[in-house]
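Thread: Newbie trying to understand structure tokens

Hi all, I'm a second-year student working on a class project, and my supervisor (Dr. K.) asked me to get a predicted structure for one chain before our next meeting. I've only ever worked with sequences, so writing a 3D structure as a token string is new to me. If someone could post the tokens and maybe explain what I'm looking at, I'd be very grateful. Here's the chain:
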Amino acid sequence: MMMARSAVAKKKSRSALAVALPRELLVDIVGILAASSPQPMADLCNLRSTCKDMYGACKERHVGRRLAMEKERGMKWRDTVAYFAMLKNLADAGNPEACFTLGLTLVLARHNEQQGLACLEQAAAGGHKTAAYVLGMLLYTLKDRRDVAKRYIGQVEGDLMRKVATEKTNRECTKYRQLAVNAVREVAWKGMENGGQSGLVPEEEYRCTNARCGVPEDWADYDVFCGDDCRIRHECVQFFGQVSRYTTLTIQF
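---
Reply by user tm_fold:
Sure, no problem. This is what the structure looks like when written as tokens:
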């Protein structure tokens, strides 16, 4: 009986501490924990059980947006159902990494392009450059969305931050291309067992006449292009060529 009273008293004291803090500060503190903890879901569960105030703070969208998704990837292999439930909840909260992973899953594994692209767009709007890269690749295959696709690749490269952009490079694309390929492999890993293969169908009539287009920049590991179309077409060939073993998509651009 004394132990039960002690537990109740302890819980009330924690609630009093939470009440003493401004709500915004409490939510911000929990958000920092979600972003920095090596096991954010377990720590948030522990916090939610302490008192009503902490429970409410842990449920705030701000906390979900900041949660470090990469720390919970092990859950995907331990409990797939729980992992995708968490993924959906975090995507609903606007977590960029969750939106990116869910978007890829919808497009590649569940063939739901409309919702998948919407999730990828939300991730890119939250500053997720790998999502912006994948959007650039996917949207360029749709002739009526190519201007949007080029803007996403410009976001990846930071073109808008440069005052002079007469030449286009794929300096940043080379980095985010590899991250995107790794993400596709992780999302579509079951397709590897089924021998998934995508088709790549380029437009034969397209030819660039600039001899310096697509030429490496001195000793650098990136190329220089004469314009947006040449750069994004080069990236499409590279990206879809690398992910072809993991997907069953037929790509034409």
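A couple of things are worth pointing out once you decode it. The longest strand covers residues 199-201. The chain has two domains: 11-67, 71-252. Feel free to ask follow-ups in this thread.
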